[in-house]
Every structure is written in structure tokens, then in C-alpha cells.
């Protein structure tokens, strides 16, 4: 079913998962037309007490629909989508609210499949509905992870998901990043020099390619190609977690000329990319309905796991999405207009933030912002080596592993200084992927590179103004200490 | 936190689960008022493209609201519940659609907590929102199950969930049932006679107490008390999966005098019951939002697992439930009216079914129906020993384990005969919990007790008529062979 046989990546637990015996009965039941069934266990749909579900949503009209929408004036155009008990909606209430298998309703799958093809043209992939990226990524970890397996990840990443795999027995191997995100050569080095005594060689890479959380970095096309080649060479699965894909910025603040970076799945001739998408940043986090794009074999495994755990996504979200992309909704062109508008909006916010940052923070000479091209975050480098109490014991410690500087401690103090001044930031330490000290390279401890804060431009202008002037003040006061 | 310390039941995997480091940051952030945050990673809620969410639902007015509703006439009373961006709804869209932790929104939790207290008065328990019973029960299995653990279950049960735990390493031990459901004395026998060589003694019982799937049985109050005493004596956790609780029948077809059987959680002074509830049968399966009632320690573990997997329930369902129980919705008295109406409706359907069964099936003398007191299913005993080819090798095989009859094979043939006649039924074999033959009692093989079909009265009257007359015909034809 896949171009390359990748079934050896499937975990022992997933292999033990059997389709439920009931499915076999339904298969037998469909062998003849007009079968009468006394077998089903579903409540009669005429008893569902819901007659109609409606959503009043923004209308993506005009050149900048998001800018118009956020004003919330009564004249902002809206449209109503939804479903009635029997239709004529795309997914009538009576149908939407029945049990389905883990794959969800075909109507919703179809809408999402069209979306995926429009943006990614994946060579030979199918979609699986999920309950958002947390659900999706942790399901991928269950699908590929045996206790004792090593997985690669960006050295700073969304730690909640990385941590979620640890109780299951996954051991994380961080890959060095620079301002452009994960460095392919560093990944290659890990794989080439892998010490078999350490256990099985990593066979999965978990990465966030656009507007990475927390570093805001977006992988260049060249890096993506190199990483994919490495995945082929070392037989890796790439779990591409891309919630900020649709928050990529246009080239200019007023433009709608966003060029979306080619996703890993778009270049995945082997079927070794499992791409995870979300509506949390496009619609709202409470959607809890996203999707995975993968090869058909992994799709079947994901559906089996869904049937054995969370079950299929909620009907309300499936109605919402089916209608959003249907004839009464935005349809794909309206969706495209909305997400390009979102890209413009986030770029405007980012530009506003960076201007303030230059005035209030960079002017201290104690910190610099790494400008993102997508997403919500500015990775902010603190020039911790300028602190009077900074120590670097590099001389005389060649070959020694572990931290050489007091970067970690000073950053903790700076974090506390910010709190004392009334400002909350996200310290880099929260996002670091722990590595086995025995196998970290001498002189390359992540503890010496924790001199970053993750800042966001998601707040109001007032928040950004107060926040950044507080940060400038806190830096000056701390570096004077 | 619990009356009895039950923390030793928590699995190794669950113990390894750590609260995310980000939570600690938010805790620090709340130590002073008026903190400014550049730390959050949530999209600004003014960008959510949803202005209003509404649900037109049945109005539970009149004596028999479900009977009125299923007619679907335009005069059937309805009411509209929902939320706007900023309220004044119970859970405004902007709030509902943000990220929350695994426990969900406090507004929804509060509504469900009141519901639980009205029906169960649990001694010292809290609720956790879930994504329905599949999600909830499998999370309980992850919470309590180590590889190699033994769990007890009704010998016939909803096999999809039991099967879901097998890849995780759970070994199932079936408990003998009779027409009244799980037999406490049989459970006691298993626990008293447990052979340590077999591995750890069972420490979890998974059971469906009302309108059990597939047997339709409802445990008597006496059995419930005995089972709870056994749980105390042998230190068991009871996972009480009760989706049919609100489908308990009134004493008379026209009455609303349903007396709800006391749940295990209502008698749970120790905190050893984890009760699982669903809206799938009360509202609709597509809801995918239910809840667990448990002690506070297990609640915390369940929230941590939710944060590490599915994440919190969808906003649309949380809006629906918050408003359903709120001032514009049914409120608890309206809900009570609706569920009592459902009990009446299912009893009417069941009575209709049993009348037909007497005429079309029981009249053959080849099968009998075991009348349920709740739920959707009639467990139908086939008098397989009346078949001309029935064999029972009991004589001469005393002490031998394994099946003594050809019950299984004949039932497979009968199932095929039904299919050939155009009828789908659910064979008992689908629901049986496999046991280790080495430890099954001589002369007590479940293979000799597979002479049941699970039938349902969820279909239309037409379906029941055609289905049951087909079953009568199939039985006559098969037993004449």
C-alpha cells in the first residue's frame, strides 16, 4: 500500500490491535441487499433531541477579511452555516450524530481531503480526522513507539507532547538547532555516529517545520529536502506537526502573496511522512478537530487506534467543517482568503512587536529578537555573556561533558526579575528536550544555550507595549546587578 | 484525598506522567495581580471567526415529551440554546473556544457535577469530562493497567473495549453471568481460588450494571452490594460503565415512576469506583462528551492523561451542555423529564418487541427472550440442545477442560441461516471474553454457552416485524435440518 514497505516502524502494541469482531458482522451483513438488522446498538436517530445546529461565522469578503472581522462592528459581514435534522445540509443532524468508525464521516473526510490536495499535493496519502494536534501527535507516538525506542526532536520544542511519550518508554534525542531551525548536518551526525550500545537507532523525527514552537523558526526548502533525504537514508518516519502552516506571513505587510513553504508530506514519495494539521490557529483551539495525512497503512492503524481509544470526532465539529467547506459556507476559496488574511494579521502583529522590541529592548544591547516568518512566537536571545556574574569555564575543560557556564542559573534569576517587575515570559528551559548526558557532545550542553525567552505577539497592543517596556527595564536592572 | 489509600492501583505508566512544566509557569504568573503576559501561546480570541453557536432542541414539555418529539410534526415544541461571542450565555464563544486543561471548562464541570449529585449522591467524588465512554473506559484501562495485569469482566461484554486493553498487556478474566448479570459468588470463587502462579490477582472489575451490553441484564441492588463488598475485601477497583443508566424502564409502560437502581458509585465509601457516564444514549452518539465520576486522586491522573493525549473536550459540546443545563435550557428538571420519557419510549419499544417475539419466535419452542429492565437489547436464548445434530459429551469427560458440546458450531450455522434469510443478528460469540483454558473450570466452557443472540428494539416497528418473523422462519428451518 505504500511505495516503500514501512510496516517495521509500527509498534508492538499497534500490531496487537485487532479490528473489532463487530466489523466482521457488518461486513457479512452487507453481502446481500435489503438485509433486515436486529443487530445494531445505536439509539434511533428520531430520538436525538436536536433539530438544528447553526453557526454564525465571519464572511471572508473584502481584501482583508480578518482585519474587518476583529473590529467586531455590527456591520461586519457574517454568514450562517449549519445543519437540520434531515438536511438538505451536507451532513444532516440525524446522520452526523450517529456512531461512525474512527475515520469519521465521509463528508468531512472529503472536505479535508480536498483541502490537503489544494495545499500539499501529497503523492499517495490519505487523511484521518483527529481531535487536534495533541491527540494526533500522541497517537503517532503510540503507533511508532516501543518502550526503549529513540525518537529525534528539535532540541527546543513543544514539551507537553514530548513529555507525553516518556511514560510510554520513548527516549528523546534532541537535534541541535540554529536560527533557521533544526540543522540537518547535526541530525546526520547523530545518526552516523549512533552507538549501538545506547539502544535502537532513532527511527522517528518529531518536528514543527513552520513558526516552530518555541523558536518561531521556519525550515528553508533546502533544509526540508536535506532532512527528507536523511529520513530516506536512515529509514526514519517524520512526524510533521504543522499547526502554524496557515500562519505563514506574506512577503509584505499589506500583501496576500504568501508563498506556503513546501511541506514534508508534499515531497514524501516513500510514505514516511505523517503530517499533523490543526484548526486551532485557523478557527479556534476549542475546535478539537484536526487531521493527519499519511500513507494508507498508517491511516488504517490510526483508525484502529481511534476505535480503541478516543473514538471518532464529535458530530458538531464534523457538521461545522462539512458546512464550512460546503456550498453554503466559505468553500475552499473563502477559506484560502481567510487564512491569507490571518497571515497578514499575524505579520502586522509581529511587525508591531518587533518595532517596539527595537525601541524598548534591543536598545539596551542586552537582547535581540530573531524575526519569525510564521506563527506566534519571537525567540528572544539574551546576551547573557554580558552579565557581570557570567562564568564560562571553557578553558581547561576540553573534553568534559555537561554545562560550562552559569547560563541556566542567571536565566532563572532574570526570569524571577521579570516576574518581580510584573511580567511573565516563557523561559527556554521549559522547552528543552532532555538528553542523556553520557551521549551529549563535549562542550555542547543545552544548559549553556538556555539564554532565550519565548515571547508572543498574540496579546493586545497594550500588552505588548507594557510587556516590552517592562522587559527592557528588567534587563537593565538585572544586568546592572 | 481518598478515604482508603488506593494509589497502588495506579499503573507504572500513569505514575511516570508529570504535570507539564508550563503549568508551573502559569502558577508563578498568578502569584501577583495585574501581571502582563508575553508568555501565552493562544490565538487572540477576537480572531475566532465564530459569532454565534445555536442549537434548536426539543422542549421537554407535556407528560411524554419523547413520544411527542419522535412524531417530528412542525408543532412539536422546540427551544433554542446557544452562545454568542461575549455572552450573556453561560459559556460565551470566546471563552468556550480557548484552550483549557484536560478537565474542561468549569461551567460545564459544574453542570455535570450537579447532575451527578442529583442522581448518585456519591460520598466523596469529583467529575472529569471525557470524550464519551470509549475514551473514558480505555483511559481507565491505561490508568490502572500494567502489562500482565488481570482484569475481571462480565463473561459477555462490549468486546470492543475489552479488546482495546489487550495490546496494552491486560489479561481478561471472565466472570460467569446468569439472567441477572454477573454472579457475585462466581467472582468470589475466582478471587478466593486465585493461583499465584498465574500472575497478579485481578485488581480491576469492568462491568456494565444496567441494561448490560449484550445481555440486557440489570444487576439487582443485592448483587451490587455483594460485588462492592467483594471489591472491598479483595481490594478491587470497579470500573462502572453505565451508558444505559438513563434508559431504565418505568414499572408500567405509561408511567414515569422509574426508580433508578443505585449505582456502584453511590455506595462507594472507599473511593474505589470509577463510574463512566455518557450522553450517547440520552442525546446522541455524536456528542462525544461524557464524564467520569471518581475519587480526586484518580481525577487528577485522568486529567494528566487527557492533557497527554486527547486534550480537553470540544468547545461546541461544552457550550451545548452548559446551555442545556443553564437558565435558557432544559435545566435539571427538564433533563429529568426527558430521560424519564426516554425510559418510557424504550419500554414501549421493548414491549412491542417482546409481544412480537412471543408470537413469531417463542411459539416455535426453539428460543426464549430474557426480558430486560433497561437499555436496548434482548438477550435471546436459543434452545440449541433441541437441534437434531446437537452433541453433548458430558458422560465420560468429567474433569476435562474445554467445550463438551457442538454449541458453537451449530450457532455459527444458525447465524448463517439467518443471513441467508436476510436477517442480521449479533451472535454471542462476538461478546465473549476469552479466558485462559488452563484456568477455566472443568465442564464450564463458555463455548458451550454461546447459544444466544443479542437482538435490539432500536429499529422501526417494520424492522422488528420483518426481523422477528424471519428469525422464527430461520429457526424452524434450521432445527428441521
From TrEMBL, chains A, B:
Cofactor entry: pyridoxal 5'-phosphate
One protein family per Pfam: Aminotran_1_2
Protein's UniProt name: L-tyrosine:2-oxoglutarate aminotransferase
InterPro entries membership: Aminotransferase_I/II_large, Class-I_PLP-dep_aminotransf, PyrdxlP-dep_Trfase, PyrdxlP-dep_Trfase_major
GO biological process, one term: tyrosine biosynthetic process
Keywords carried by this UniProt record: Aminotransferase, Pyridoxal phosphate, Transferase
GO MF annotation, one: aromatic-amino-acid transaminase activity
Domain Aminotransferase class I/classII large: residue ranges: 76-469
Family classification: Belongs to the class-I pyridoxal-phosphate-dependent aminotransferase family.
